[in-house]
Amino acid sequence: MPLVHLMIGLALAQFLFFMFAVGKARETYKVPAPATTGNAIFERYFRVQMNTLELLVVFVPSILLFGQYFGGYLAAALGVVYLIGRFVYFSSYVKEPKSRSLGYGVSVLPIMVLLVGAIIGAIRATMITL
């Protein structure tokens, strides 16, 4: 499970990177706190951060549970795909929001696999103990 923990740590570090990018964009595009609107490019950075936060809520528990039932190597591999997808999403969304689909899909698909696998693993474990 250390690889799963590493993926969670990297996902959290990635989120902090996005958070700092929002702070820099806030300064660059003159959007004073607590405003979250006022400049279209700043809003793109902000949406990437918020969308990533929304996905982390599902990613973190899903990768932990999936790793428990199906092993850390496969869970970590899916975590790598998620991280790559988030960086693709970040770069494409900031450049042109309409181009975000690939990055979104590459980051959501592994989360769906992790979540479904976690549920299946829990059901299988429950059936064995009954």
Describe this structure in words.
The chain has 130 residues and is mainly alpha-helical. It has one domain: Membrane associated eicosanoid/glutathione metabolism-like domain (Four Helix Bundle (Hemerythrin (Met), subunit A), Up-down Bundle), CATH 1.20.120.550. Helix content is 85%, strand content 0%. It has helices at residues 2-28, 40-70, 72-95, 101-129. The model has no long low-confidence stretch (mean pLDDT 97).
Describe the secondary structure blueprint for this structure.
Layout: H1 2-28, H2 40-70, H3 72-95, H4 101-129
Helix pairs in contact: 1-2, 1-3, 2-3, 2-4, 3-4
Sum up the structure in keywords.
130 residues; mainly alpha; single chain; Four Helix Bundle (Hemerythrin (Met), subunit A)
| Count of distinct strands | 0
| Coarse shape | elongated
Biggest pleated-sheet summary: none
Low-confidence spans: pLDDT under 50, at least 5 residues? none
CATH-derived topology: Four Helix Bundle (Hemerythrin (Met), subunit A)
Mean pLDDT metric:
97
Corresponding CATH architecture? Up-down Bundle
Strand content: under 5%
Provide the number of structural domains.
1
